[in-house]
Fold:
Amino acid sequence: MAALAHSSVDSFARAPGAVPRVRLPRLRQLGPNWYATVMGTAIVASAGAGLPLDVPALRPAWVVVWGLSAALLAVVLTARAGHWLHHRDQARAQLLDPAVAPFYGCMAMALLAVGAATLTVGRDVLGVRAAVAVDAVLFGAGTLLGLAVAVTIPYLMVVRHRLEPADVSPVWLLPVVTPMVSAATGPLLAPHLPAGQGRAALLFGCYALFGLSLLATLMMLPLVFGRLVVHGPLPLALTPALFLVLGPLGQSTTAVNQLADAAPTAVGGPYAPALAAFAVVYGVPVMGFALLWLAFAAALVVRAVRRGMRFTMTWWAFTFPVGTCVTGAETLGRHTGLVALEWLAVGLFVLLVTAWAVAGWCTLRGLFGGALLPAPRVPRPAMARTA
Structure:
């Protein structure tokens, strides 16, 4: 997602002539967009486990990727805590920056994505009981944080951020799509709750989150497309963010199908059959639009590459949103029985793994090469002159 590494000289309080000391300088430019690495990795494990391919030999690979996503979550959480502790001024500036603030939704989605992968893949290592406990904690924390972000960031956009029509960006979707991730991952916990009020409350609560996110997304999407039509293509570095539009499309398709799977044991008739029908009636048209947007966004990315687009953290937008389309196609394939949807899921998964591998390699190269998260440049102290 949008690169946060700006090269600038930071000023620090210090005694005259003293060299400023900065604690953990490499963390100063660490933004909330780094949670996208966690999201993109976790969705590879979840989507891989749900593929309509009976290849038991691949299961250990998804376990490894899940473990990597959990490790990344721990690292990024720790690094962001250090950022707030040692670079609080920069953290506050990021929150008030309209180009950066929407990425706070990535933290909630990272928690939810790793929680879902833990229950679907990590249970092979942890056991079902421990996996349910981990997912319950991450789901609860991610949902509460996501709701807070869905309210706080739009509020800041209205009262604190100064925005122009040309500033409209697909990253504005990040705060409002977070509840949709909760709606898609919450049903995985339903079978592990006692039958009755608990399951029903979770089911209808997830439908409320689905509606909240869907309606907010429908308000944002016309702004995004209108900005492209009126002001032209996005800047080269931000062009991959167009893939973020796939997030609410694929995730909402996944959500309605996962909720339909949980409905028979949560609410039964007459709602369960109706919700199963709604999953297909809603999911198929939305998946069709997702494929249209995928082609449209890919064409603009090709244009940007031909004009010199280079790697930035925005490239992680190629991962999680595409992964939600994989899970959407997988769940639709289960409900409709269409082989075409199953092959669509496989094809999109190949695209997902390719994008994840490229983004991951470029990120590691940028970190070790110093292009990402550069330490602030420290002015050299003036040398005293002697007469």
Notes: The first helix runs from residue 35 to 49. The chain is about 65% helix and 0% strand. The two ends are 55 Å apart (CA to CA).
